[in-house]
# Entry
Amino acid sequence: EMLRSLVGSEMCIRDSNTTGKPIIYGLEEFIYPREKMLSDGTLTDFSENEISHKAEVFENIAQRFCLYGKSGKLNNKPFKIRGMKTIQYIKIDAKWKMVSVAWSDEE
# Structure
C-alpha cells in the first residue's frame, strides 16, 4: 500500500549483490510478483521492520536512509536478512509522496 503513493515515473531499484548490476523496476513490475508470492503461498510468515533510520528534509524534498531487517519463509525455507534502503520524497499539496526507492540486502 505504501508504494502505491509513488508519483510520476516511479523507480524501485534493487542492488544485485550477485551480479553487480542493479535491477530496476517500475511500480507495477515491483508490486505484482510480490503480491503473487504473498497470495499463492510462495512467501509466508513475512515480516520487515526498520531497525534504524536517518531522515533529512529540505523545503519540499526529503530523503530517508534506513537499516531494515526482514524474515519469513520462501518456498518453505526460512530466511533472515538485513539491508539498507534509501527513499526519496517530494511534498505535493501538503502530502509527502515517494519518488524512488533503492535498497541492498546484505550478502
